[in-house]
Amino acid sequence: MNTVYAREDYLGADEYIDVVRKSGLNRPIEDRGRVERMLAHANLILTARQDGRLVGFARSLTDFCFCCYLSDLAVDKACQGQGIGKRLIEETRVQAGGEVTTTLLLSAPTAMTFYQGIKMPNADNCFLYRRKR
Fold first, then answer.
1. InterPro entries this protein is in (predicted)?
2. Domain chopping of the chain, boundaries
3. Which end of the chain is more exposed for a tag (fewer CB within 10 A), N or C?
4. May I ask the CATH class of domain 4-117?
């Protein structure tokens, strides 16, 4: 299957919710208004499409020269294992400024082996306040 990767200025809530649901990613998809705000305020969205259908995306917040927070990485479970997630991370890094930009993501416990498998470096100097909902 041919996968087309692209940077998109707009990703609709319906497509986002559909892929989140099909990927198993834990996001507040029952709160459409919150999803719409999440998408409206992201400034870097990379997509993976097969025959025009969204099968994966990476949603980030970045300044394009120093830091990038890759907040969401989701791939439809039916398409996992095709290298789509790895490629979305690579494309995110390039679009966010390449090697001069730090790209950070927080992994769900169930996805740790994926990031270890693609040899993404692990940080031991991270601090955070977790959201309450």
1. Acetyltransferase_Butenolide, Acyl_CoA_acyltransferase, GNAT_dom
2. 4-117
3. C
4. alpha beta
Task: Identify which of 72, 20, 87, 79 has the alpha carbon closest to the alpha carbon of residue 41.
Answer: 72
Longest dimension (CA), the chain: 41
Buried b (16+ CB within 10 A) or exposed e, 36-55: eebbeebebbbbbbbeeebb
Query: Residue 115 has what pLDDT?
Result: 94
Rounded Cα distance between 36 and 112, Å, is 27
Tokens standing for residue 133: 């909902």
**In which region does residue 82 sit, left (phi positive, over 0), alpha (psi from -120 to 50) or beta (all else)?**
alpha
Q: Is the pTM of this model over 0.85?
A: yes
